[in-house]
Amino acid sequence: MTEMVYGAMPAERGEPILPKWWRTIDKWTMSCVLILCGIGLLLGFAASPPLAERNGLGPFHYVERQAAFGGMALVAMIITSMMSPTLVRRLAALGFVFAFAALALLPVFGTDFGKGAVRWFSLGFASVQPSEFLKPLFVVVTAWLISASQQIGGPPGRMWSFILCISIVLMLALQPDFGQAALVLFGWGVMYFVAGAPIMLLIGMAAAVVLAGSFAYANSEHFARRIDGFLTPDVDPRTQLGYATDAIREGGLLGVGVGEGQVKWSLPDAHTDFIIAVAAEEYGLILVLIIIALYTMIVVRSLIRLMRERDPFVRLAGAGLACMFGVQAMINMGVAVRLLPAKGMTLPFVSYGGSSLIAGGIAVGMLLAFTRTRPQGEIADILRGRVR
Asked: What pTM was estimated for this model as a whole?
């Protein structure tokens, strides 16, 4: 009946999985991700040897680990992108339960690795950051709840999605991890906006965020220290922001040359949170602009393809994943150039980090699954039918 009403295109029966996947996938987005992974390895060769030397490890220890994690991320991305939206939704709901429970158990079993925020589970040979995996799973579950609430007689999905969002934000803020909390809240806001949220509700949410920020500033030394460091007109050259600012300034247009950068010897997080400073110093503004263009391409192409999608769940989940991916990259680079307060957030597919890379692969795999061309027609078909 649905095909008779909406004029769906006939599916090709018996087509093998791989040829069908290759024919329907967004190859430009996938190519951009592969290039970003390559850039991450290139910058890893520059940024990680000083850290390995300080820790008494081989010079390319972290590069080898990044290559291994990146390989796992690409495998996860490809496998996830082959799934149907229904299968992605079901697996995301199951994974969300485990990730939510892991986040709740962090205060008991987690560790801070001396960074002042309990965000990781230490496994001895590696560490896991539950919030990285929770973000894309939360987006898919929220999209499911909101889209279900739009159906006649549907559940109160919007209310439940808001309860889940606030619960996660509070748990992240208590770590404290205000950057990830803001990112989760932003993702929920994007999906709620796409679903048709009243403008007054969004204004009220913005006011609530300001009040919550003021409360955190008054009661959290960690939060206040980062805000004060951002607002001060003078940057201490011995801080991470000071080193990053000097490195970006020294790089100029073409950079100081491969392997000639000095910031990697001073920044403890040069291979993770401030990897863009290494790129700017050694390769200059040109590489930074290339990185920005790659992230922009992924987000814009995904949103354009989603505009033709008829399924409300796919539109909401895809928009949330694409915007969250782009904003995380924007936050990381904005911190390095002092446009934003320090957040402790990685640059997707470029920064070192097992949880970040693998979770990023899963998130983009979901996005690729949602943006694949499927035999369903487009939303424009419905609009043209209404006009007639």
From this structure: 0.88
